[in-house]
Task: structure prediction
Amino acid sequence: MNRDLDKIKEMLQKPPGISGKERYFNSAVLIPLVLIDGEYQFLSKTAKKTPSKSVI
Result:
């Protein structure tokens, strides 16, 4: 039983992997955080779905 526990502990120490990672490239996403009233908030910008119409 102790060997099983040791085997589980050893498996949990390995970092998780990504299946098929050799087909992809490493990348990262930067998410800016802003401190507002003592809390961190995500900074994001939403694009309009339709262009605005100019009134002439």
Summary: The chain has a mean pLDDT of 80. The longest helix spans residues 2-12.
